[in-house]
Amino acid sequence: MKSIYDLNYEQMEQMVLDRGWKKYRGNQIFQWLYRKRALHFDEMSDLSLQMKEELQKEFRMEPLKILSRQISNDGTRKYLFELADGSSIETVLMVYNYGNCVCVTSQVGCNMGCKFCASGLLKKQRDLTSGEMVQQILEVQKDLDESGQRVSHIVVMGTGEPFDNYDNVLNFCKTVNHDRGLAIGARHITISTCGLVDGIRRFADEQVQYNLAISLHAPNDVLRNEIMPVNRAYPISELMDALRYYTSKNNRRLSFEYILLKGKNDSEECARQLAELTRGFDVFINLIPYNQVDEHGFVTVDDKGAMRFYDRLMKLNARCTLRQKHGVDIDAACGQLRAKYERGKSN
Ligand code: SAH
Fold it and tell me: 131 CA distance to ligand 1 centroid (A)?
């Protein structure tokens, strides 16, 4: 059965029209779901009993089940949800001075196989539906409602490769962005990809205002092939071509994610190559402290090393920031909590 959360605003209107109801009914249902955060069709008091019964027969609406919720000292909240088919996924809320940012999971497991990432420990089982992504936001929002706060930012940086689930991810963005619902600004939504070139080109052609982030992590093909297998299909030169196309079509912000792995990608030469790659590009480099994943053997660069790399980039006139760690005390690295949970189940 389809979930009511799979329908974006226009699809909701079409659905009610298809039933022979007035178009404004679509708006009413959308308001109940996203403004009033109703938990059941029964609550939709401006619909007739017959309408509510029809909806209930046709659509699922049950909330995601919370398997666990951890709260860090710095305000980070990490949720482990169970989906209707029993799969588990992680969602993280990070609290910044500019707002509340939710990190959304886009697939159950991931097939990209990045060597440093905990998500890839569990292969992809399936794509998430648009509704399952919408519900991650909704669950966190319901939690924040208790203190009168709202989700203001979204990053599609949880487990999964968003451009390997392109249509559902874009539909999800459309729903949470809609101003009759959660109204999360397009410029506050960031999609992160490991570099699926076809997806980047397709995304460039959309008339949307979302931000794009590229997980680069290595500034040359030898190293990138080693730590990110996707690079063998789409080497850096092809990636850069696609990004040039993107920036020619789109004036939105582009950023490179670069986790610092000690002795791997933190050399002076790497800094030089990285600065070279970004020359002439309107791009921002986010240096990210690596959340160590026990299984993988990579080591986090210490604060001093991170500062050194940052300084080198700045001297080379590359624009960059050094990101703070969040939720270090609660398994916040992508996929860590879920990997632990799934291991526990099979033990
Ligand atoms: N597949 C997408 C989105 C999910 S990964 C992508 O690759 O962009 C989101 C970000 O977290 C990526 O930049 C990824 O490389 C990074 N990441 C993965 N494991 C990490 C870890 N252990 N510590 C820090 N960042 C990590």
Answer: 23
Ligand 1 neighbourhood includes 194 CB (under 6 angstroms): yes
Ligand 1 mutation target, pool 210, 215, 224, 296, most atoms within 8 A of CB: 215
Cross-strand bridge partners of residue 249: none
Q: Is any ligand 1 atom within 6 A of the Cβ of residue 91?
A: no
Q: What are the mean pLDDT values of the chain's consecutive 10-residue runs (347 residues total)?
A: 97 98 98 97 98 98 96 93 96 94 96 88 93 98 97 96 98 98 97 98 95 98 98 98 94 91 97 95 91 84 94 96 73 60 58
Given a contact cutoff of 8 angstroms between Cβ atoms, the answer to whether 177 and 133 are in contact is no
Task: Please compute, for residue 271, the number of CA atoms within 13 A of its CA located in the half-sphere on the CB side.
Answer: 22
Start-end of H helices in the chain: 9-18, 24-34, 49-58, 130-145, 166-177, 197-205, 221-227, 230-233, 236-249, 268-278, 303-315, 336-346
Give the position, in ligand 1's atom list, of the atom nearest the Cα of 217: 15
pLDDT tens track for 54-93: 999 999 999 999 999 999 988 999 999 999 999 999 999 9
